[in-house]
Amino acid sequence: MTRKLFGTDGVRGLANSEPITAATALKLALAAGAHFTRGDHRHRVIIGKDTRLSGYMLETALTSGFLSMGMDVMLLGPLPTPAVGMLTRSMRADLGVMISASHNPYQDNGIKLFGPDGFKLSDEIEAEIETRLAGNDLAASLAHSADLGRARRIDDAPGRYIEFVKSSFPKGLSLANLKIVVDCANGAAYKVAPTVLWELGAEVVAIGVEPSGTNINLHCGAMHPERLKTAVKDQKADLGIALDGDADRLIVVDEHGRMIDGDQLMAVIAQSWSASGRLRNGFVTATVMSNLGLERFLQSQRIALKRTLVGDRYVVEEMRRNGGNLGGEQSGHIIMTDFATTGDGLMAALQVLAVLVQADKPASETLRLFAPLPQLLQNVRYRAGAALPLDQAAVKAAIQAGEAELTGKGRLLIRKSGTEPLIRVMAEGEDEELVARVVADIVKAVEAAAA
């Protein structure tokens, strides 16, 4: 079965335009509710969200759909995506829902679904839900009047998540000697992230903690670390931590204001866990976007790297298949299945901070373990609904020429974004000028095809 509604990370789009409308959200709740209704117990659904204005609209529509299926709804309010995964499993819910478009601007929104085990749904289950959504029998699954669900707010959800995150920090360590700037992207972690760091002992400078509904990810957070870099230097902090809108992504800035990406962070955690015997089965899972420098460094540590398609859910699936407990993406999704079912920026930050505390050296000396190969990524936007530029003969020819030039010298990755109408063009190799030329030629061809 193929999926049309779901992308690489749930359903996503422009808020109040299909498929991110109240009507479609309600129908999606009906279909998902029908799929996850099994047995005669009282079914329950967990719903969390980030701070987008459209979150109220979608939360209400989804709640209505689940209630009409006879499922009780437990509303968490603004909390990180990993908190939804954790609480779905912890509270024995039949289904978890996160309303978020992650790192996208406030105009977008999305719906991510978690199964009873707290993990994001597989492609197969998403396809089955889409089949139900397209059918004409959802009305037959509606609950009788006396069996409608009830909705209530879970006031202690933030506290539950805060204690859960703190429990992942090694016992006996403290952040008491660190000054940390944390940028919460005016998003889902604007309360919990500063609290966790402060309660573990750090001196905390919090920015991006004034959500308005329209400023999530706006010139702040993991996608826009410039403000964080400035704040770290101005505050003379030991390092900075940037999360994205739903706090499943992490970027770190050292004391000089220099950015440390997800590949470097995976290397730091992998080396630490391997030395302490915590790295399960001797491998790390990353996507095809991760730098070749990471792969070479891990090899030097006798750690294997397994690559997957882009998307943290594919990283998780590979980890579960092969018994791994550490994986992630260059963009900053760090997945540690000993603790969480999905990427958790705050938990990943604590693992990095533990290494920093134990090393007792500056972040600039501790958190950069390899020199990345020159890598260039450019995005080309095309009109949604228009013909895919990658199908054009001129684009195919440009890609073929680029692959030929990089043979034996690097690698080329061209893909369609799973969340936006973008073509992503990435090249990597020893020769920076060659990489730049190959990317420029392909981008030019894609732009011409998209015009």
Structure description:
- The protein has 14 helices and 18 strands.
- The chain has 451 residues and is of the alpha/beta class.
- The model has no long low-confidence stretch (mean pLDDT 95).
- The chain folds into four domains: 145 residues, Alpha-D-Glucose-1,6-Bisphosphate, subunit A, domain 3 (Alpha-D-Glucose-1,6-Bisphosphate, Chain A, domain 3, 3-Layer(aba) Sandwich), CATH 3.40.120.10; 85 residues, Alpha-D-Glucose-1,6-Bisphosphate, Chain A, domain 3 (3-Layer(aba) Sandwich), CATH 3.40.120.10; 105 residues, Alpha-D-Glucose-1,6-Bisphosphate, Chain A, domain 3; 76 residues, 2-Layer Sandwich (TATA-Binding Protein).
- Helices cover 37% and strands 20% of the residues.
- Strand 12, helix 9 and strand 13 form a beta-alpha-beta unit.
- It starts with 10 loop residues before the first strand and ends with a helix.
